[in-house]
Design goal:
The chain has 273 residues and is an alpha/beta fold. It contains ten helices and twelve strands. The strands form two sheets. Strands 2, 3, 4, 7, 8, 9, 10, 11 and 12 form a nine-stranded mixed sheet that branches. Strands 1-5-6 form a three-stranded mixed sheet.
Length: 273
């Protein structure tokens, strides 16, 4: 399991989600079917959790189910998630040509990557090490493969960066209906069930107001979330809370839980950019 010049191999298949392609496809389809709810409109951006599917899969599925009518429309997914293992400055690209899951390889959008690399953006780096074992981006890919079919990705591991720097990168790749922004983030970590519920509700209320989060205690992906919120304000996006739960609601005990939320962001009519 290592990154090469050609592709970044799956690192958490068999751990966070099934390593067998048939079992994985079946599990994702089951999660999507159970999560079906009235559409919010075509999402321009999503916030989704990144734990093992047994814990956060139902919450993530509530967001990805919103994309099913957009199969064939979305061609590029800009995927941003926090680093958990390898600290990096700024936002790190993997330096590979594709990412692999048990469902196949997803090509990296070289045109979009080159667009970032030729800009005077000091915050863009390349780090295969930051991506090699990082789960925050990888666990999103099987959902995207199931709902979108053919698409390309711009995978960005977010390290020591500011919300403004993240927003600048998102703006550079904003595009039109062919481009989706996905931010991977869990909420509070390892609090008792009721305390987590209270804090996570406050965090979701802030996101619903497009208000920046104060700390990574609220969300491990607070930096990419805050960058998305800046861009959402600029583009007049409307957030929709689709699901809010924690591991105590899904597959864990209630003594030390992790919070999960799913949001879809849609364009307000008359303000589409």
């Amino acid at each position: 399991m290592h990154a090469t010049a050609d592709f970044r191999a799956a690192a958490v298949a068999g751990l966070f989600y099934p390593g067998d392609a048939k079992a994985l496809a079946r599990d994702v389809q089951t999660l999507l079917a159970a999560a079906a709810q009235p559409p919010t409109g075509a999402p321009k951006a999503l916030i989704v959790p990144h734990a093992g599917y047994v814990y956060s899969g139902p919450v993530a599925a509530s967001a990805y189910a919103q994309l099913q009518p957009l199969r064939g429309t979305i061609q590029r997914v800009v995927l941003l998630g926090p680093v958990h293992r390898v600290p990096v400055p700024g936002l790190a690209l993997p330096g590979t040509q594709a990412f692999e899951t048990p469902l196949g390889r997803i090509p990296i959008d070289r045109e979009a990557v080159n667009r970032l690399l030729i800009r005077p953006m000091h915050q863009i780096t390349t780090s295969a090490a930051a991506h090699e074992f990082e789960h925050s981006l990888e666990v999103q890919l099987p959902f995207l493969q199931q709902v979108l079919g053919d698409f390309k990705i711009v995978p960005l591991a977010v390290g020591d960066a500011t919300a403004d720097e993240v927003a600048e990168v998102i703006e550079a790749l904003w595009g039109g209906p062919e481009t989706l922004i996905v931010v991977s983030s869990d909420l509070s970590h390892y609090l008792p069930y009721q305390a987590a519920q209270q804090i996570d509700q406050q965090t979701c209320a802030a996101i619903a107001r497009l208000q920046a989060l104060d700390s990574h205690e609220q969300a491990c992906g607070a930096t990419p979330v805050n960058g998305l919120l800046l861009a959402a304000r600029h583009h007049h996006l409307r957030p929709h809370l689709l699901d809010l739960r924690n591991s105590g609601d899904t597959a864990g005990d209630r003594e030390r839980v992790v919070g999960y939320a799913a949001f879809a962001f849609t364009e307000v009519p008359g303000h589409a950019h």
